[in-house]
Specification:
668 residues, alpha/beta, Purple Acid Phosphatase, chain A, domain 2, 5'-nucleotidase,  domain 2, 18 helices, 34 strands, signal, Bifunctional metallophosphatase/5'-nucleotidase, nucleotide-binding
Length: 668
């Protein structure tokens, strides 16, 4: 078996040698123990350091029930119940993670992956896909994470041989092989030369092939085409005599479906990245995320692939049962996602003793949940909960800092309007973040630094990592959890035509079911409407206006296509990352952009000369000094500081903005 250091050329020769040896070797005796085989896969993805439960709600007919979902102790409790069932029935089981364990909470900001390694290693995970957020820090810290965990991370379409930190890492692999004897399993370093009576399952990983465009901190890791690499890996595993093959991926549900339609021989894809909670949750008024365990026909027309994914933020766990015949062909796949609820329920978002359901109503909710297949009341794993609370929680609580505002009711965040039973206007949080960043950059002291009067702002929904719960909001809620990526703000001159093209291109990319919706744009001091024309394919901006008044007294004027506007956004999107490609194109030759960061406590402007592209990576070239975010004296998270200051000075009673700024009208 090869490890994560291979290159494509080396891979070719390894495969060629394997074929030669296979041709020359005596034919193995048939495996007389071949028989039908059933494999259960428990799976999670995009857990994003959600070690504590997430405040949530669901509907019991017309009644809103406020509760909590998930958290890693609750995930572990459910996973162990699945393991206990499999052991009792002597049935094979794998527990897979679809990537993006990193980032997302104050726990990660304070511990930089160390806590993730600790907690995940206690959960019995068999393998994990390499997610884009695993590159959020640097490859030295990623390497330390890989050294610490007790399960492999998989990506068959990467080459780490040129990267100083990852070139010798043995726990980053293209694939692993599991040998099953009923419930008992062994992870093998290589496929056995002859059958030994055990059932073999190959699990390989696929990472985003445009990773450098999404995660700029990938070092010298090289990424290869997803489809070509997937087919080559399936062919290699098949040549080794393995006929049951699982892909664990972090590329998004729509891409998983595309891979399944273009690659022969993958039995199941366990996905991540798009945060897609597959299944029909309309019984809870939580929408329909698409078919769970959908069967996608392979290009040969003879085989099909089962595709699953399990939502986000450790709120749900999926379980799929795969049935193979004696020839190793997949005959059936079935299962579903389950939202994991606590057993304390409230009638209002303000969770007090007065709003807590009494015994009769509580029992009514419990009875309802017990009748549903996609939600369950699950206790937290006591030992893991105690470990988190004693080892990690005290430092996190201390880091949140002072109270800056109060939310009388929760503000909900979704990435794309219409997701999660939201309306056509989508997130309540993203427009608030966008307006706060506009307000901060439009102040006189900032305008004097940049030489530009800001007109409006744009934010990508994926940069906002949580809803805002009711109650006190502390500074750390914003800087550690809501906007944890430490991006500095940038003011970018754009024409009205470029703004319309940006919005149109990016929204079109988010229309397909299961697409990566983190790039979906929201505006501050800007409002627009987008009408979908061809379902899941394309649409058009039908209205776009800039506010020339105030938040309380808006004066909306049409955006002029030939006018020039000064737009504030975070540096990640301003560089053209995550599909905001027009930003790169508009600054490729020259840029009037100005970036903003604090140096020695003083806000400073950093003019940008241009943006260059090399090996799929976008890099900012500064006119003078570049921003050194790794220096202790430099504070780069002006994206979060702007929101903190807006709440503190202008919006300490935190509510949604008075008027919607985004309208997405889907075609019927």
């Amino acid at each position: 078996m090869i490890d994560g250091k291979y290159t494509q050329k080396r891979w070719f020769w390894i495969l060629a040698l394997g074929w030669i040896l296979t041709a020359c070797a005596p034919a193995p005796e048939p495996d007389v123990s071949a028989e039908p085989f059933t494999l259960t896969i428990a799976h999670i993805n995009d857990t994003h350091s959600a070690f504590d439960p997430v405040r949530a709600r669901f509907w019991l007919q017309d009644e809103v029930i406020y509760n909590e979902f998930g958290g890693h102790p609750r995930l572990l409790e459910r996973a162990e119940s699945y393991r206990a069932i499999a052991e009792r029935e002597n049935q094979p089981l794998l527990f897979l993670h679809g990537g993006d364990a990193w980032q997302g909470s104050a726990y990660f900001k304070l511990n930089e992956g160390r806590m993730n390694a600790d907690i995940l290693s206690r959960m019995g995970i068999d393998a994990m896909a390499l997610g884009n957020h695993e590159f959020d820090l640097n490859n030295r810290l990623l390497n330390a994470f890989l050294d610490t965990i007790n399960f492999p991370v998989l990506a068959a379409n990467i080459d780490t041989s040129a990267d100083a930190d990852l070139r010798d890492q043995q726990n980053l692999k293209p694939y692993v092989i599991f040998a099953f004897d009923g419930f008992e399993k062994e992870r093998l370093e290589q496929a056995p030369l002859y059958p030994d009576g055990r059932q073999l399952v190959g699990v390989f990983g696929i990472a985003l092939d445009d990773m450098p465009n999404i995660s700029p901190n990938t070092g010298d890791v090289v990424f290869f085409d997803m489809v070509e690499s997937a087919q080559a890996t399936v062919d290699e595993l098949t040549a080794l005599g393995i006929d049951k093959i699982i892909a664990v991926t972090h590329v998004g549900h729509a891409v998983d479906v595309d891979i399944a339609s273009r690659v022969n021989g993958i039995d199941a894809i366990v996905g991540g990245h798009s945060h897609t909670l597959l299944g029909d949750f309309s019984n809870l008024n939580l929408g329909h995320g698409g078919e769970y365990a959908a069967r996608v026909m392979n290009p040969d027309g003879a085989q099909w692939t089962c595709v699953v994914q399990a939502g986000e933020y450790a709120q749900a766990i999926g379980r799929v049962h795969l049935t193979f015949n004696a020839e190793g062909q997949l005959e059936a796949c079935e299962g579903g996602n389950t939202l994991l609820s606590n057993d304390t329920f409230y009638s209002e978002n303000q969770r007090t003793d007065e709003t807590r359901l009494d015994a009769i109503d509580h029992e009514r909710v419990v009875d309802f949940i017990e009748q549903q297949a996609n939600i369950a009341i699950v206790s937290e794993h006591a030992d893991l909960r105690a470990h988190i609370d004693s080892v990690y929680k005290p430092a996190v609580e201390a880091a949140y800092g002072e109270v800056i505002g109060m939310a009388a009711q929760g503000l909900r965040h979704v990435r794309r309007p219409g997701d999660g039973a939201s309306d056509e206007h989508g997130s309540e949080v993203a427009p608030l973040v966008a307006y706060a960043q506009y307000w901060w950059a439009a102040r006189d002291e900032v305008a004097e630094l940049t030489g530009m009067s800001v007109d409006f702002s744009l934010v990508g929904a994926g940069g906002i990592r949580m809803s805002i719960p009711e109650g006190e909001v502390r500074e750390g809620d914003i800087t550690l959890e809501l906007l944890p990526f430490s991006n500095f703000l940038a003011v970018v001159p754009l024409t009205g035509a470029e703004v319309v093209r940006l919005l149109t291109d990016v929204i079109n990319e988010t229309l397909p079911e299961g697409s990566h919706a983190g790039k979906f744009p929201y505006g501050g001091n800007l409002r627009f409407a987008f009408d979908e024309l061809d379902p899941g394919v394309r649409g058009a901006i039908t209205q776009i206006e800039v506010n020339r008044g105030t938040l309380a007294d808006p004066q909306w004027e049409p955006l002029e296509r030939d006018g020039t506007y000064h737009v504030v956004m975070n540096s990640y999107n301003a560089t053209g990352n995550d599909g905001w490609t027009i930003l790169y194109e508009s600054q490729r030759e020259s840029s009037g952009r100005v970036d903003l960061a604090y140096v020695d406590g003083e806000l400073r402007a950093f003019p940008v000369e241009r943006i260059v592209s090399s090996d799929g990576r976008l890099r900012v070239v500064y006119a003078d000094e570049e921003i050194a975010c790794d220096r202790e004296a430099v504070i780069c998270n002006t994206d979060a500081i702007a929101v903190v200051e807006f709440i503190r000075q202008q919006w300490d009673t935190i509510t949604p903005l008075p008027d919607p700024t985004v309208t997405l009208r889907r075609a019927e």
